[in-house]
Each structure stands twice: as structure tokens, then as C-alpha cells.
Specification:
The protein is mainly alpha-helical. Helix content is about 55%, strand content about 5%. It folds into three domains: about 140 residues, Up-down Bundle (Four Helix Bundle (Hemerythrin (Met), subunit A)); about 110 residues, Helix Hairpins (Orthogonal Bundle), CATH 1.10.287; about 50 residues, no CATH class. The C terminus is likely disordered.
Amino acid sequence: MPGAGPKPLHEFSGKKSLGVFAKTNKFRVFCHKIVDDKQFEYLIMSFILLSSFTMVFESPKAMENATTATSLEAVDVLFTVIFALEMCAKIVAYGLYWEDGDSYLKDPWNCMDGFIVVIGIVGKALSGADLEWVRALRTMRVLRPLRVISRVPELKVVVNALMNSLPGLGNVLMVCLLFWIIFGILGMQLFMGSFSRCDDGGVETKADCVDGWVNATKDAAWDSVAKTCTNPSLIANLTATAIASGTTFAVASLNITTCVGSYDETLFVQRTWNSDDTNFDNILNAMRALFEMSTTEGWTSVMYAGVDARGPELAPSRDHQPAAAFFFVAFEGTCCISQIQRLFANTRLTLSFLYLSHRQFLHPESLRGDHFE
């Protein structure tokens, strides 16, 4: 069932494939007959899906079994050889690059296929070398399912629509970036340095956040791994009581129910004045904070920190400036407008998809690699 290739062999230019195989060469004719067969494409697609499915079983626990590891490795080598033979057959049939306008590397989809296959071959060839970058190459096998796209016209339409919509999405991104810069500068003017505090909770001002302090009283805790109690005072008291009564005390006799009380930790800690992870101390931190808020995940925590902020030299105090909440609400409202803009961008994406779907039936050749841009 021919039709899988870009065109019949007789329509290719007279140049020899790889400088060796003419159009009448039996080996080239044989290769073209194979790669131009739709059933061969279906077979390769099945191999792609199977190779992707086998990677699911490559878990660390499964690879501890020598038999499983050897079997999976053998299957992966088999698929790598099959895909390499397919690539070589297409190169012989179509030419590498300079032979014709439909040569192998003239089609971006083939370039993607070839890149994935070459990465797999290099990874297998250097699998014995204990190198970090070689192990990184093996992870590139996860790209194999992408090869299905080049073999399903409907998926090509979707990808082409996505690519054609990137300029519109870029314009939306520029608008969002402009608003983030405006609100970032405004946030710096309002909250620069105000999200800072001393790591000693009892210190209110930056001027007093000096020297060090002894940690506060801590509650006893039971270490279930070491089977020990973290309360040294309890152990000392029980030992003294046992000595006074003429008996001995075994630390091993403590358990989770008897490990109670509190103790003073004598570790000296140097006071430091630090900003919160989310702050407006500079434009980069402000942009990052606004980006986190734009996801609507935890933006109220940043707003509460702004409401509590008192200034660069003072620790936050609860509900110090409630009016600061309007800044964060205004930004979230602007993000809603951006969401509407993204909705229009998605509408344009859908229209592009419908247009390309319609063009698919009128001009099937428009799905070739020269339209993948």
C-alpha cells in the first residue's frame, strides 16, 4: 500500500542518493518500496508504542533483578536497531540532504526522528562508560513517543496550529511582562526591605538584632529511630533520684510515654536579620513574587506579609497596614484581565486548528515538513 513517502521514486531528481545509489539502483528501489508502504509505517508506529511501553517497567526496583534488567536491555537494543535500519532505509530512498527537495534532512519531522535515533545509538555504544553525560543520553529515550506525531496527520495539524499560534502567545506574554514590571517597581517602592525580620522572634528592630541568644525552652521529644529521649534534664533527674534511693537508672528504660517534660537548650545562636523567601527587595525578587502570585497559589500569604510589614528596620506586626492589601488585590485583578487575553489567544489557537484541519483535506501536501515552522 504505497503513499507513506513524500512522492514516488521516479519523481526524485536524478542525483544519486549518498552519491552512490541511483534511482534505478535495485537496493534503493527496494528501500523506497519498503518505506513508502503504509503498512510499514503502521509497523514502525507499533514498535514506537511498544518501546515506549517497555520503558514503564524500568523502575529502580525492577532493575535490581538481573534477569529483568538483561531482558529490558535486550529489548531496547532490538528497538534501537529497528529504528536505525528504518532511518538508513529512508536516507537511501530519499537521499540525505542535497539530492532532492524531499531528502531526509529537508523534512523537520525526519530531523526529529533522526536525532532521537542517533541519540539512542550513541547511548548504546557508550553504555559501558561510566559517564554522567552518557546516562543523560539514555534519558533522551523518553522522546521516542514524539515520533508518533510525524506519522499521524491529525497530530501534525495540532502541532502546526500550536506553532502558528506562538506569535500571538508571545504578544500576550509581553503584555503580562509589562504589567509585572509595573507592579514589581511599585511593590519595591512599597515593601522593599519590609519583609525582613530577626531570627530571634523576641527582637522587634534591626538595631537590636545583634550578638546572640540562648535558645528558648524546648519540649522533650522521643527519637523512635535511636530509641532515646531528647530531654537531658529528665535523664539527669531520674539518675539522681535512683542514686539517692540506692538503685540504678537505665536510660533504655525510657519510652515514648515516659519521655516528657521540657529543658533549656544552651546552644548559642547568632542573631541575623533576613528577608523572607518571597520579598520585594529588588526587581528580580519582585518579579518572582508576582509570578508566584499570578498562579493564585498562596498569593494570600504574600498579601498578609505585606499587610503585616512595618518597614525595613522593623519586624512585621500583625495587621499593621490593612490598606496594603489593595496592592495585591489590584495585581490579582490585572491577572484576571491577562487570563481573558489568554482566552482570546486560545480562541485564535482553536481557529488556527480549524483552518489547518480544513486545509488538510484540500491540500494534504501542506502537512509536510516545509510547513512545520
